[in-house]
Design a protein that fits this description.
With 441 residues, the chain is α/β, with parallel strands linked by helices. It has 16 helices and eight strands. It has a five-stranded parallel beta sheet with strand order 4-5-6-7-8, sandwiched between helices. Helix 12 links the parallel strand 6 and strand 7. 46% of the residues are buried.
Length: 441
């Protein structure tokens, strides 16, 4: 009898575990349907202009990641991922069940034909298919088809952090060699806009003639925030440093040899906090990449959002809103605690593309149980490959992101934490209202 009782208990326990697991990965169908109807503000994406002939649009990113050494692609970024076919079917009426090259030609022809028919209206049409009302466009510059009110600009500020000879930093690996070459080009563009061919002699002149005017031009051009991809170039540990030390390093190396890395970091740290302070004055947010990144050389530890704590604790920066893009993955538990900082926000862009809805739902639940007013929807729509363009990645991320949100809210309802009315309120906050309030849209 004893062995029968133990066996019965074990079977019952396994059944209960299975039921619990089933509840964790399902959602309320009617709640999910209502969430699907909410028009979203996409906090972070890289839309691409329609170019039917001539050179392709390359201003979708200051640091495009399509020319890097090979690395192991996550499953959901591989052409064989089932969601890729779903996206092609939904967007372009693709009739195949795979994206093998001989089949993909059909989809690419349909896609090109649609671009030709819609022209500059094509990007906004893609937003309609994603259920997105407004997309924050991370771009070097805007252009035809990517304009307000559907697209709002977030330009790049990283190049302003590196006004000296960057050869020592570029020699660290092939990815950074490519990236710093691109940052040098963008800095020359900012210098040209200021009527300069080289950085001025003193730090005060650099700040007054290049940095602040560049940011003011961005603001006047409609920018809502300045974007930093700094985690691809250095760690996020931007320490508070004395201006005198920054001035000394700038003056010593501005027209000389490449500075030692430790000295150069002091100048970069000062410039970052200066730019962040100016963002507060200009009522622009600061966006930061906080997640593992593309490429086999990416410094994951250097992207830990906890490295930003001294910035978030700086009383002189309390007028600036900091948005930690991609929700800090894999440091999602650590980033939760940072939401208590009054100037800290996050989105889950890219996570909604790379993670399964069930995995993301668990992360979202932690944030929604902590400070839900700081959590925002995002896709990180990006032209990853021929099979996964910004359109496909955006559609997939929007769909999976909504599904994950529905799962998280359903689990909270089932556990008696929230009512259905509160679940819908939280969904509207995450998908639309939190971003609307943050940017004053």
């Amino acid at each position: 009898m004893r062995s029968v009782s133990i066996a019965t208990l074990m079977i019952t326990a396994l059944l209960l575990i299975g039921c619990s697991r089933a509840q964790q990965i399902t959602n309320s169908p009617d709640l999910a349907a209502e969430i699907d109807r909410i028009k979203a503000i996409d906090n972070h994406a890289h839309p691409v202009r329609v170019v039917l002939s001539g050179p392709p649009d390359r201003e979708f990113d200051a640091l495009p990641v399509d020319n890097m050494e090979p690395s192991s692609d996550p499953l959901n970024l591989r052409p064989t991922a089932p969601t890729v076919v779903e996206a092609w079917r939904a967007l372009f009426g693709y009739s195949q069940t795979d994206v093998w090259p001989e089949h993909l030609r059909e989809g690419q022809e349909r896609k090109q034909r649609l671009m030709g028919e819609k022209g500059d209206q094509y990007p906004a049409w893609i937003l309609d298919q994603m259920g997105v009302e407004v997309m924050l466009a991370n771009r070097v510059s805007m252009g035809p088809g990517i304009q307000p009110p559907r697209f709002r600009w977030v330009p790049y500020a990283d190049a302003l952090l590196f006004p000296l000879d960057n050869s020592n930093l570029a020699h660290q690996n092939s990815d950074r060699r490519s990236f710093f070459a691109l940052e040098d080009v963008l800095l020359r563009r900012y210098l040209n806009n200021a009527g300069l061919k080289a950085p001025p002699t003193t730090l005060a002149e650099y700040l007054g003639r290049v940095v602040t005017p560049t940011m003011e031009q961005h603001k006047n051009g409609g920018a809502l925030a300045e974007k930093f991809e700094a985690a691809y170039l250095r760690s996020l540990a931007f320490c508070k440093v004395d201006r005198t030390a920054a001035e000394r390093i700038y003056a010593q190396f501005v027209h000389g040899a490449a500075p030692p890395e430790a000295d150069y970091k002091i100048l970069q740290d000062y410039l970052f906090r200066y730019i962040a302070s100016e963002c507060g004055r200009l009522e622009m947010a600061v966006h930061l990449h906080t997640m593992t990144g593309a490429g086999s050389y990416f410094d994951v530890q250097g992207a830990n959002p906890l490295l930003l704590e001294s910035v978030l604790n700086d009383p002189s920066l309390r007028k600036t809103k900091f948005v930690m893009l991609h929700g800090g993955w894999p440091f999602t538990r650590e980033i939760t605690a940072l939401l208590e900082k009054p100037d800290a926000y996050l989105d889950y862009s890219a996570q909604s593309l790379l993670l399964t809805p069930a995995t993301l739902a668990g992360i979202l639940r932690q944030w929604l149980e902590w400070v839900p007013e700081k959590v925002m929807f995002g896709t990180d729509a990006y032209p990853f490959s021929n099979e996964i363009g910004w359109e496909e990645s955006g559609w997939i991320a929007a769909r999976m992101g909504r599904r994950a949100l529905a799962m998280a809210l359903t689990a909270m309802m089932r556990d008696g934490e929230i009512s259905r009315e509160r679940a819908l309120e939280l969904a509207r906050m995450v998908l639309h209202e939190n971003a609307r309030h943050l940017y004053g849209l």
